[in-house]
Design goal:
2 domains, 157 residues, Luciferase, domain 3, single chain, 2 helices, 11 strands, elongated
């Protein structure tokens, strides 16, 4: 992947912002001086590495290997970033929750997130309790599936 000439791309060590050597995997940091939407050292959270040499087409700008993973556990669902702290905040609202895991599935605009929780017991009024995290999202539909211990889930569609 050849980097656009109007964009400054750095590959840095996640968490420190220190540049890594060419070929070493690091976080992609972007600077673009677009007057309508400037970005100054925007950490994308995506991992990549600089490729040596020039492109087969003859373009000489920096080349990167493409997407190689995430620098952290943040994910993007329908254009919105979901941070691990948000999952923890929802889990803390329910004392019954022992463990929580966010699962993202689907493709691009059809992605779906499911918050799976392991709970000591289901809340007495699960639908009302699970609707609280969904209050600001019309596409969030709470459901609960029970077994022992009761794993309940809230699914965004």
């Amino acid at each position: 992947m050849v980097v656009d000439e109007g964009v400054i791309v750095e590959i840095v060590r996640p968490g420190t912002g220190d540049p890594v050597a060419d070929g070493e995997v690091g976080e992609v940091v972007v600077t673009t001086l677009n007057a309508g939407y400037p970005l100054i050292r925007f950490g994308t959270g995506d991992l990549s590495a600089v490729l040596p040499g020039i492109d087969a087409t003859g373009r000489t700008n920096m080349r990167i290997k493409g997407w190689l993973g995430r620098a952290d556990q943040t994910t993007k669902v329908r254009g919105m970033f979901v941070h691990p702290s948000q999952v923890a905040d929802v889990s803390r609202r329910f004392p019954e929750v022992l463990k929580a895991r966010l699962v993202v599935s689907g493709e691009m605009a059809n992605d779906r997130m499911t918050l799976q929780v392991e709970a000591s017991s289901a809340p007495q009024d699960w639908r009302r309790a699970s609707a609280r995290p969904c209050a600001t999202s019309p596409s969030c539909a709470p459901t609960c599936r029970s077994s022992s211990p009761a794993p309940c889930r809230t699914t965004a569609r």
